[in-house]
Amino acid sequence: MAQARTAVIERKTNETDIKVRLEIGSLESAAEQTIDVNTGIGFLDHMYHALAKHGKWSLTLHCTGDLHIDDHHTAEDTAIALGMAFKQALGEPRGIRRYGHAYCPLDEALSRAVVDVSGRPYAVVNLGLKREMIGTLSCEMIPHVIQSFVTAAGLTVHVDVLRGDNDHHRAESAFKALAVALREAVSRTGSNDVPSTKGVL
């Protein structure tokens, strides 16, 4: 039986107190997911829940942040902590596909995500959001959440919303596409090979 890919991260600063437990699932796994997210920002919780659900993760993520100031620290720091947990849970990227891509629609919105478990953090995120806020989450923070997660996780990621009129739909389809692309990229191949001509990632 393949070894479980799990991590527990606790990250505390003067601005946020975060606890993350993550288990990265697999395409072949029949294990039931458990998802419990509470950041104090409803739409951010919704995006993390979509990421976990469609990425086939079990995720517990709780944050107490300085929301009396604004949403920035909570959004950024939870993304960093989640990226750290992802990197730790995955471990050495051996015996995985490495690359993943997905298109996900949500009604009129359509998003594309392409992932490389490269060990070289780089994010290109084009969501084209027009609103200032969705719920209590600043729209400027939504691509920043993806960028912060990607940097901490050591991934190369391109996420583009190709079309859509509703910003809620645009953002959610982007997170769903990222989730499905990540699920493909970390799926096991059955080998013990490091998927790189360098022999390391």
Structural notes for this entry:
The protein is built from 4 helices and 10 strands; from the N terminus they run βββαβαβββββαβα. Helix 1 runs parallel beside helix 4 and helix 2 runs parallel beside helix 3. The chain is 32% helix and 31% strand. Strand 8 and strand 9 (137-138) form a beta hairpin. It is α+β, with helices and mostly antiparallel strands. The chain starts with a strand and ends in a 16-residue tail after the last helix. Strands 1-2-4-3 form a 4-stranded mixed sheet, with helices on one face. A 4-stranded mixed sheet has the order 5-6-10-7.
Key terms for this structure?
four-stranded mixed β-sheet; 201 residues; alpha+beta; 4 helices
Unreliable spans are: none
The total count of helices amounts to 4
Distance from first to last alpha carbon: 24 Å
Number of strands: 10
Tell me the helix content.
25-40%
Task: Please provide the ordered H/E string of secondary-structure elements.
Answer: EEEHEHEEEEEHEH
Structural class: alpha+beta
Compact overview of the structure:
The protein has helices at residues 42-55, 72-90, 141-153, 167-185; strands at 5-12, 16-24, 35-38, 57-65, 99-106, 109-116, 122-126, 133-134, 137-138, 156-163. It is α+β, with helices and mostly antiparallel strands.
Question: Secondary structure elements and their pairing?
Answer:
Layout: E1 5-12, E2 16-24, E3 35-38, H1 42-55, E4 57-65, H2 72-90, E5 99-106, E6 109-116, E7 122-126, E8 133-134, E9 137-138, H3 141-153, E10 156-163, H4 167-185
Parallel strand pairs: 3-4, 7-10
Antiparallel strand pairs: 1-2, 2-4, 5-6, 6-10, 8-9
Helix pairs in contact: 1-4, 2-3
